[in-house]
Design a protein that fits this description.
six-stranded antiparallel beta sheet; 8 helices; 10 strands; elongated; alpha+beta; 2 domains; Arc Repressor Mutant, subunit A; Chorismate lyase; 27% helix; two-stranded antiparallel ribbon
Length: 253
């Protein structure tokens, strides 16, 4: 068996160190990393090994490499696994991001919008929860969730700035079996634009999600407006599966 050192371990170690330094703020978002020759010298490796490490960071969405120009630090990647029943906030927190929730309003409504009423046909009112999600202090998602009885009253009593809607639903005795989700493009209206601090008419990704109980009745109907300048959808393909994720990107400024 060969005893030669594994060069892949070197670039992986460098990538991990650079990632930690980016996360700590030593290399702030939007700034340039030191020149590649300076970095390769500092780490005591060849340019080829250093570039392998940088490619790892680029694949993770942490940096942007521009041919003949500086390597820029991008906002950290934030992936949301659409194939799970976990919430967006839970996925982002597990990746080390600071996610905070601002509750705009919580209250019962009798006049249900059509996109909710079609799923709650057998009830004349539901709980409406309006929230804004902030990622690393920046508002990126406006979310309106509708919850039906018999769980709505219990959910209303919870502090939804610290407790996820799914956790509140489970504590109230609700059992979630599956969910369907569709994503379409949209534009920012004045109400949402003001809440996410973006100009009216800007691009949106609009997610419509319906969560079902084991008896196939809808228990939560949710619409999330994701700022198109700050979030993107990424797909990773392999021979056996496709993984679709949300990614957090810069705003182009």
């Amino acid at each position: 068996m060969s005893s030669r050192p594994r060069h892949d371990a070197k670039y992986a170690t460098i990538a991990a160190d650079l990632k930690a330094r980016i996360r700590s703020g030593e290399y702030p978002q939007g700034t340039a990393l030191p020149p590649q020759r300076a970095l390769s010298s500092a780490y005591g490796v060849t340019l080829m090994t250093l570039r392998q490490a940088l490619q790892v960071l680029a694949d993770q969405g942490l940096i942007t490499q521009r041919a003949g120009k500086d390597t820029l630090v991008s906002p950290p990647q934030a992936s949301y696994r659409l194939g799970t029943l976990r919430s967006l906030a839970d996925d982002l927190r597990d990746q080390g991001h600071e996610v905070t929730t601002q509750v705009v309003s919580v209250g019962f409504r009798k006049a249900l919008p059509l996109w909710v009423a079609e799923w709650f046909e057998d009830t004349d009112r539901a709980l409406r929860v309006e929230r804004v999600r902030l990622l690393d202090g920046r508002p990126v998602v406006h979310q309106v969730s509708w919850v039906r009885e018999p769980y709505a009253h219990a959910v209303r009593e919870r502090d939804l700035t610290t407790v996820s809607l799914y956790d509140a639903l489970a504590d109230a005795g609700g059992v979630v079996d599956r969910a369907t989700e569709t994503i379409r493009p949209g534009i920012l209206g004045s109400h949402v634009a003001g809440l996410v601090r973006q100009p009216v008419g800007g691009p949106l990704l609009v997610s419509r999600r319906v969560t079902y109980q084991p008896d196939d009745s809808a228990v939560v109907v949710d619409r999330a407006s994701i700022v198109g300048k700050l979030m993107e959808i990424r797909a990773q393909r392999s021979a056996t599966r496709i993984s679709v994720q949300w990614g957090h990107q810069g705003d182009g400024n």
